[in-house]
TrEMBL record:
Name this polypeptide is given: N-ATPase, AtpR subunit
A family per Pfam: AtpR
Lineage, top ranks: Bacteria, Pseudomonadati, Planctomycetota, Candidatus Brocadiia, Candidatus Brocadiales
Keyword terms, alphabetized: Membrane, Transmembrane, Transmembrane helix
Residue ranges of the TM segments: 7-32, 44-64
Source organism, top-level taxon: Bacteria
InterPro entries linked: AtpR-like
Length: 103
């Protein structure tokens, strides 16, 4: 039987996953925005990637707290944000499809 505390914990994990997803993709957008004006763009890309992944992985680790269900819900929140942002910012009439595999 699922307890109210479990539902609250999973809802919190979903919200944190969405927040860290938003932070990750906002950081990616910021990195891409500054590429034309920076002297060493490849260093910016690598440093941004390392920092964003460290934040995401550390957040997932602490939210998980040894329970795979929390990690799964956190990942679902992360991918919900990804899906929403891609749908929102994909140009109208674009031939790019929203799939998770390539052909």
């Amino acid at each position: 039987m699922i307890m109210v505390n479990d539902i609250f914990t999973l809802a919190t994990a979903l919200a944190v996953g969405m927040a860290v997803g938003l932070l990750n993709f906002a950081g990616m957008w910021s990195t891409i925005h500054y590429l034309p004006i920076i002297k060493y763009p490849s260093a910016l890309i690598m440093l941004s990637y390392i920092i964003r992944m460290a934040i995401v992985l550390a957040t997932f680790y602490f939210i998980m707290d040894g329970r795979w269900e929390r990690l799964l819900v956190c990942l679902v929140g992360f991918f919900i944000v990804r899906r929403v942002l891609v749908k929102r910012f994909l140009p109208e009439g674009s031939k790019m499809k929203m799939t998770y595999h390539s052909k």
